[in-house]
Design goal:
4-stranded antiparallel sheet; 5-stranded parallel sheet; elongated; Arc Repressor Mutant, subunit A; binds calcium ion; Rossmann fold; 218 residues; 8 helices; 23% strand; 2 domains; alpha/beta; single chain
Length: 218
């Protein structure tokens, strides 16, 4: 998998590129928006929004107009508006500086899995009467909207991306809670119990012993 890193600061870009390469990714790095728009197609773009030439949000918009490549935008702490606009312009996710490599890799994997699971990464996921719209962050069951907390929604979406598949607890922790700390496993159980209640039938989410959970139509 080939990642394009768009980052003007060498002190950030160099360890990042090295870290991603160590994880087995193929990485190219450019330092300007103009170079990002001229770069060869990649499988994912990690886009810093503060660039010396073109506003990163314009780069995001232009990339999205020409392709469906997954885009993760990088914002500085406190730049909430950028994050929101980035997502509106078609970015798939964001990370806030300073971020750890582990967190970034979890997000890269989540975004690429999502894009692979439903083609464009933007279409609602449908399993029987359940519809999960990640773009609108809404879930409906038989046309009735489910009243979910943000984490319940993310958990449902993480399971719905691969219906019928056993999804490990580690993967859910990484995707939904951006952690690999196993001590937080109990949190998953609490959220699963609540989701089952809201879905009205516990069989929607089956426990896979010693692995995790599987979502499927009862
Ligand atoms: Ca920058």
């Amino acid at each position: 998998m080939h990642i394009l890193v768009v980052e003007d600061e060498d002190s950030i870009a160099e360890p990042l590129v090295n870290g991603l390469r160590r994880e087995g990714f193929d990485v190219s790095r450019v330092a300007t928006g103009a170079d990002a728009l001229e770069a060869a197609p990649s499988d994912l773009v990690l886009l810093d929004l503060r660039l010396p030439d073109i506003d990163g949000l314009d780069v995001c918009r232009s990339l999205r107009e020409r392709s469906r490549v997954p885009i993760i935008v990088v914002t500085a702490r406190g730049e909430e508006a950028d994050r929101v606009v980035g997502l509106e312009l078609g970015a798939d996710d964001y990370v806030v500086k300073p971020y750890g490599l582990r967190e970034l890799i979890a997000r890269i994997r989540a975004v690429t899995r999502r894009a692979a699971a439903n083609g464009s990464g933007r279409e609602p996921l449908r399993i029987g009467g359940l519809e999960v719209d990640e773009r609108a962050r809404r879930a409906t069951l038989d046309g009735r909207e489910l009243d979910l907390t943000p984490k319940e929604f993310e958990l449902l979406a993480a399971l719905a991306r691969d219906p019928g598949a056993a999804v490990s607890r580690q993967r859910l922790l990484a995707d939904v809670w951006q952690t690999t700390w196993y001590g937080s496993a109990k949190t998953i159980d609490v959220h699963v119990a609540s989701l089952r209640r809201k879905l009205g039938d516990p069989r929607w989410i089956e426990t896979v012993r010693r692995v995790g959970f599987r979502l499927d139509e009862p």
